[in-house]
Write a structure and sequence with these properties.
The protein contains 21 helices and 23 strands. By secondary structure, the protein is an alpha+beta fold. Strands 2, 3, 4, 5, 10, 18 and 19 form a 7-stranded mixed beta sheet that branches. A 5-stranded antiparallel beta sheet has the order 12-11-23-22-21, sandwiched between helices. Strands 1-8-9 form a 3-stranded antiparallel beta sheet. 40% of the residues are buried.
């Protein structure tokens, strides 16, 4: 080997040694940087990799009725979860067999959960029974990543359903995940109708967290720091309701075999005492996992049990709306209460004849309301005019939402001159359209909740409260009860106007010839107005609106029953029973030893529902239109 070769070899060795030294110095510098300079930052990341956060669900808030009775409770429920990081997808068929769940559904849920986080448990099946839980425990060691934990589900301890006002909870949907935003994840349970949805933010509470140490393979080794860092969930807030569940149960039993709605309000503050929509559904079907076939049955049922007739229907109110026309005539000084017309059983406008059910003879305004004389109001409407009529209809809340504290509500339809011009054209309608509107027919459409508010304002002489089912929210953590504010406005009418129309309504119930004799209550006076709305598709719809006691009302009510006939025959007796139940705290008409005394409002006495009650046990009616 020459000297030149030796020098080349020596040079190569020096370069190699230099490279090794440089690499060594680089690694030493990097080690120094990681251990000392970035220790805090990377130490926290390392800790995060070794500690798993497991969310813990809060207990949903409870609901109590106006008498302090628990009406929406919680019961424990077991939920199966899967950790995507630990779970072997080859076990999907085995787990789906244990849970009786479609493997495709399980695969889809795991896919969505893993996309969010492979280290967060995915809820696979809620509300499993004890037998399934036992099988799961038996095979648990063969199903790594599979676990279960306890949640709560809704339980309803009363005999009243109140499904359309209470609402229900269900597993969050994809669209709800988008709209509800931060704090919600796949598998969460949320309010999806009624008060459950309206007050979701208060009822839900706040999630907690448990921290668990995991090894490099993702296996849980135990609680981190002996659980001292765990964050307990915050229980949801409770709702204090205005509903009276004794009244609710009675109202549901009286409406059991009917289609229609009943709404009762406290005219002193607008609190909902009862709200019934029939047919309805068993609210407990939604408290756990609702089988798909049950959901399909409810959605395809021709009677529409999920549809809230109390707030969403739009039916003509019939003669129950005549008081609005009377108010307009009195306020505009178009008629005096003692002015008389002669009813011969019909009235002609142009070439069209509008009929009445009876020949009432000479009739003043009191008698026209009492006996529901169509001819009187046909003539009155032509003098009052559409604009004045619709003005006072709007003052009582028709044609607009009432603001009830559930999401689903229709505004109905109150025709105005502008609306009629748009609908028919300025030359497309004449005064011949007005007589039908005078008796609550034609284009006019109302909801039972609007009619209950109408009865409330007539009862208290103009105080129009926003109807509501929640009076206060109770924060148990901070021990604070916060009243829920609701709007109120005053309908300003002349004192004589209130006196005349209310006296007419008193006669409807209390005097011979009144159309609502079946609404009479032993020991007290009530006021009301019946309505029979024509239905081109079958039997007429029956209406009644009223209030009691007459001089100091504590309940205002609206009853609407589809396809049965006269309001005085079918709606009025149901309303009478409900008013009696609330005013006395029980149905005193069945107490032979009862002696009428000053009624005590909403006593706590319990009264069993009477599903088979015969409504002809009430006073006999002279006229029942």
């Amino acid at each position: 080997m020459s000297v030149v070769d030796d020098m080349n070899t020596y040079g190569k060795r020096r370069v190699m040694y230099l490279v090794i030294v440089i690499v060594f110095l680089f690694f030493m510098g990097r080690l120094y940087q990681l251990q000392l300079i970035y220790q805090d930052e990377y130490g926290k990341k390392s800790e995060a990799n070794s500690i798993r956060t497991i969310p813990t669900e809060p207990v949903r808030g409870y609901m109590y009725d106006r008498n302090g009775r628990l009406v929406v409770d919680n019961r424990p429920s077991f939920t199966v979860t899967v950790m995507p990081f630990e779970f072997n997808v080859q076990n999907i068929n085995s787990l789906s067999s244990v849970l009786s769940l479609d493997p495709e559904i399980m695969h889809e849920r795991l896919k969505k959960g893993a996309a969010y986080s492979r280290f967060a448990p995915v809820k696979i099946q809620r509300d499993i029974n004890f037998e399934t839980l036992s099988v799961l425990e038996e095979y648990r060691e063969h199903l790594p990543g599979v676990d279960y934990h306890t949640e709560s589900k809704r339980y309803y301890p009363t005999r009243a359903r109140a499904s359309h006002i209470l609402g229900y909870t269900k597993e969050i949907s994809e669209s709800q995940l988008q709209t509800l935003g931060k704090g919600y994840t796949q598998g969460d349970v949320v309010g999806s109708a009624g008060l459950e949805q309206q007050y979701e933010a208060a009822l839900r509470g706040q999630k907690g967290a448990e921290f668990r140490i995991v090894n490099a393979r993702g296996q849980v080794m135990g609680p981190f720091n002996d659980g001292r860092n765990d964050i307990p969930p915050v229980e949801g807030k409770d709702l204090l309701l205005t509903l009276d569940f004794d009244l609710q149960a009675l109202a549901e039993s009286l409406m059991a075999d009917k289609r229609g709605a009943l709404v009762a309000l406290d005219p002193r503050d607008g609190g909902i005492l009862a709200l019934v929509s029939k047919p309805d559904y068993d609210i407990s079907l939604f408290s756990g996992v609702t089988p798909p076939e049950v959901w399909r049955t409810l959605n395809t049922d021709g009677s529409k049990p999920l549809f809230n007739r109390a707030t969403l229907t739009r039916y003509p109110p019939g003669s129950a709306f005549k008081v609005i026309l009377a108010i307009g005539a009195l306020e505009k000084d178009i008629v005096k209460s003692t002015d008389r017309i002669t009813c011969r059983g019909s009235f002609r406008v142009g070439n069209k004849v509008f009929k009445d059910l009876h020949v009432h003879g000479s009739t003043d305004l009191y008698e026209a309301i009492q006996r529901s004389c169509n001819v009187y109001f046909y003539q009155l409407m032509l003098r009052v005019g559409l604009d004045n009529w619709s003005h006072y209809g709007a003052a009582f809340g028709f044609g607009q939402a009432t603001g009830i504290d559930i999401f689903e509500e229709s505004s109905g339809l109150l025709p105005t001159t502008e609306w009629m011009n748009q609908r028919y054209g300025e030359r497309g309608w004449t005064i011949g359209y007005l007589p039908n509107l005078a008796i609550g027919q034609g284009e006019l459409g109302v909801t039972p909740i609007q009619m209950a508010c109408y009865a409330m304002a007539l009862a208290n002489k103009g105080s129009y409260y926003e109807p509501h089912a929640v009076s206060a929210i109770v924060d148990k953590v901070n021990k604070v009860t916060e009243p829920v504010p609701h709007k109120m406005r005053q309908i300003d009418l002349l004192p004589t106007t209130w006196s005349v129309v209310r006296e007419g309504m008193r006669r409807v119930v209390q005097e011979p010839g009144g159309t609502a004799g079946l609404a009479r209550i032993k020991g007290i006076e009530a006021g009301g107005k019946t309505g029979t709305a024509q239905n081109p598709h079958g039997e007429d719809h029956a209406w009644f609106v009223g209030f009691a006691p007459f001089d100091n009302p504590s309940i205002a009510i609206a009853v609407m029953i589809e396809n049965v006939g006269y309001g005085g025959s079918f709606a009025a007796p149901i309303a009478g029973l409900c008013m009696e139940q609330f005013v006395y705290g029980r149905l005193i008409r069945f107490d032979k030893k009862f002696v009428p005394v000053e009624p005590s409002v909403a006593k706590n006495a319990k009264q069993e529902a009477i599903p088979g009650l015969s409504l002809d046990q009430t006073n006999s009616a002279e006229t029942t239109r």
